[in-house]
Amino acid sequence: MRVLLALLLSATIAPPAAADPLEAAHRLVAAARDDAWGYRLLEGLTTEVGPRLAGTEAERRAADWSAGKMREAGFDAVRIEDFPITAWVRGVETAKIVAPVPQPLVVTALGGSVATPAGGLTAEIALFRTLADMMDAPAGALAGRIAVVTQRQTRFLDGSGYGAANPVRRAGPSEAARRGARAYLHRSLGTDSHRLAHTGALNYRDDAPRIPAAALSNPDADQLERLAARGAVTVHVELSPLSLPDRKAYTVIADIRGREKPDEVVLIGAHLDSWDLGTGAIDDGAGVAIVTAAARLIAKVAPYPRRTVRVVLFGAEEMGYSGAAFAAAHGSEADRIVVAAECDFGARRVVSVELPKGAAGTPFADALTRALTPIGVVASPVPATRAGDDVNPLGKMGVPLMALRQNGIDYFDIHHTADDTFDKVDRDELAQATAAWAAFAYLAAEMPVDFRASAER
Length: 457
Ligand SMILES: [Zn+2]
Prior knowledge:
The protein is α/β, with parallel strands linked by helices. The protein has an eight-stranded mixed sheet with strand order 3-2-9-5-6-7-8-4, sandwiched between helices. Strands 1-10-12-11-13 form a five-stranded mixed sheet, with helices on both faces. A three-stranded mixed sheet has the order 15-14-16. α12 links the parallel β14 and β15. 37% of the residues lie in helices and 23% in strands. The chain starts with a helix and ends with a helix.
């Protein structure tokens, strides 16, 4: 009905959307500045649903809540899909220095970690300043010890220190176990100096024993470094997380249906699941708010673009399931996805865009650059090769990717901690990011651009 109305309107009144995509993009950017719908959505999600750990009742509630909000907002074909996962829930997590100077340590279990024996375990630590140093230890060298890696994550505006330090959390537990360690502790992947530990998923290797693993807050890692430089240090750690097989995670999908080519899809996504320590405001409630608000604005301000704008809210990103699950469920539609992008880097402003390969020099690139330059976004000379964990598998299937890079200078101060809460979100920055996403999604849906063809030129 609404599509019909839009068609009638576009036939009678001069259709600004179709006639001048850039002019419509400018109107979208202006409208985003005054639109608080996304900010309120984020406030509601973090308040009424709260933490949304994958595979739990809370994630299901988040899916239903979000689908309800999108129906209310007039999205087309709102649906919820599910896929199987092994969920993981946190239990007790405590640690302390037993000797030489007893004191508490702030730790948090890594997602996927096994539990310690009931009552915990106590052992002398073997401390390494880098993961590479620990890897130099021969097999058996860490027998009976708690391995500790205190490698630091460097602060960068684009967050690239995270990728560099990521193996410390992902691979460290199994590498420590291979060398005989009973448990693994590491300096949080984080750039803050607060006594909050940063959780995140580990990846056990099949050929290594599964040992309990946790992150230390940065000041606690510093303290262990200083003590270890003075002599032997004994630590006690207790973790009681649980793995829950045969659970379901959820994907919420909703469309702004295209007026001419509804089967061609511009996919903009974010992940709805979050860690359990905070309320997932910046990771990734902000992304949910930005892409959903961007699509809603398109429907309000520049209805209806030629192609469909599809919002996908992924579940179980943090535990590493959703990208593969979506590609498996929707891979057969990959050739109809014009471009895909995921918003998963906090709530601050967009600072640059990486265009799909082959987009340079196209009318789309020109229009997008003109729409975004006034709000401080620059076009990167580097084409997008990665655009978020949930859409990267689509990229491998040939779907063109687009990346909108946000200011992440303090993202890793908060990321995956108890401090990831709504008060950290700046309304104006969220609105700027929404403007950038709205302009991008609209122009890709409205203009007859074919990134696949232009990439081959
Ligand atoms: Zn995330």
